[in-house]
Amino acid sequence: MTSYREKKVITIGVVHELTGLSERKIRYYEERGLIFPARSKKGTRKYSFSDIEALMNIADQREEGVQTDEIKRDMMKKKNSKQIREELRRGQLNAHFNMRKP
């Protein structure tokens, strides 16, 4: 079951109201590959609470002068290290319970 934090149900207008970021800036961060909203059948962007937190983090870093390329690089490092940790954890569980990947 998907956590409420991950459900993409919030429109860009609401994200604008919650974050204070302009809709244009939110779209720009999407274009730069920093956030990944879902799209409805009609093409409306839908965001999650996690996306909003990410946007606030991005905005804070931009205020400190961090470039979007640097932010993206850091995000990829964190994502990769998280994936590696998950694979290690899964491998340890598989080894402990003598399980193999299908």
From TrEMBL:
Region of interest (Disordered), ranges: 75-102
InterPro entries xref list: DNA-bd_dom_put_sf, MerR-type_HTH_dom, MerR_fam
UniProtKB keywords: DNA-binding, Repressor, Transcription, Transcription regulation
Domain HTH merR-type: 9-77
Domain of life: Bacteria
PANTHER family: HTH-TYPE TRANSCRIPTIONAL REGULATOR TNRA, REDOX-CYCLING DRUG-SENSING TRANSCRIPTIONAL ACTIVATOR SOXR
Name used for this protein in its record: MerR family transcriptional regulator
Organism: Virgibacillus xinjiangensis
Source species taxonomy: Bacteria, Bacillati, Bacillota, Bacilli, Bacillales
